Amino acid sequence: MAKEKGTDEKLWSRSFVLLIFLNFIMFMGFQILMPVLPVYARALGGNEATAGLVVGIFTISAVVVRPFIGKALDVFGRKKIFLMGFFFFCLFSLSYIAASTVLMLLSLRFFHGFGWGTTSTTANTVASDIIPRSRLGEGMGYFGLTSTLAMAIAPALGLFMIQHSRFGFEGVFTFSGIAFLIALGLSLGIRYPALQPQLGKSALFEKSAFRSATIVSLLTMPYGSVVTFIALYAQQRGITNVGLFFTVYAFVLMISRPLFGRLSDQKGFGIAIVPGLFGVMLALFLLSQAKTLLFFLFAGAVYGLSFGAAMPALQAMSVQKVLPHRRGAASATYSTGFDLGIGLGSILLGTVAQVSGYSSMYLWAILPVMLALFIFFFPAKH
User: Fold this and answer.
1) Per-residue pLDDT tens over the stretch 8-51
2) Which CATH number belongs to the domain containing residue 216 in this structure?
3) Using an 8 Å Cβ cutoff, are 58 and 109 in contact?
4) Which domain range does residue 170 map to?
5) Are 117 and 331 in contact (CB under 8 A)?
6) CA 17 to mean position of chain CA atoms
7) How many C-beta atoms surround the C-beta of residue 196 within 10 A?
């Protein structure tokens, strides 16, 4: 009987299923913008550095708001913050339709990041509330599948839509806004755990999550460059249908996330994180050498396998030993690291791309992953 309590019945509650659907739709609205907005920036007269800023400035504002949202979640509860974030994201997704200059686009993008920082931090916190402690790695693996499935569909869909005048950029922005309205509706059906509000002084960041947040920040630096520049890189190589890169990447990620999530629950985090980091380095090297669509897709498969191995373990590690009233802060700390890596990677590596080209950029992107590997092993020696 004790074993049965730790199986599917306890993990797959009604609220967990609703949260999974909500997260999928939320990430559809988010991911459809990722490869499209750099192209939109170029269409408005921007260059590679500007395309990097479109992603970077968004993640910077998300980083700024996350610790305050984490604190608010622990003080005011989850539901009100969730609703506010969905409304904010929807509003600015639709506002891109009116952007007629690069400066206007960057301004809207900055404020849009506040909405993303709010909704994604809340979703991760609610997941850590609902998932049983004994199945945290597995549960986070399944929870992360929803964002992976969205990545399999949304980027390719977005690129398809802008290539057909019937939809165009306006269609992509409208799709994103509607997706977040639907997610808002689903959030109303979740049963949020009753937590005692913490009204006293407490740190905005959770110290126990620093290690996983630092590692994920270094891991997502090259991820930011992949998402931001893969379409432009393939265009430079004369390759069409590169949206399939995201589909292959996400399909493999869907397989690896739950498998390695369960494995990390049984054998420890290192068994998933270490091979994941080595695999990401290999994928970046393959991308730097890619000259055909098949080569791009192979690199995407390696990237998906490796990223999917490391992410559930890192996310579970960030909240494993955290008290319930500090889960908002822990989720914010981890998510801040995630976004900070994407933002810095997009800006810094975008500058590298402008100076030395995309191929060299992906080689340079290996360095932060090497540093992440060192940081993972460092505490074990002391």
Assistant:
1) 446 788 888 999 999 999 999 998 998 888 888 888 888 777 87
2) 1.20.1250.20
3) yes
4) 13-189+205-381
5) no
6) 20
7) 8
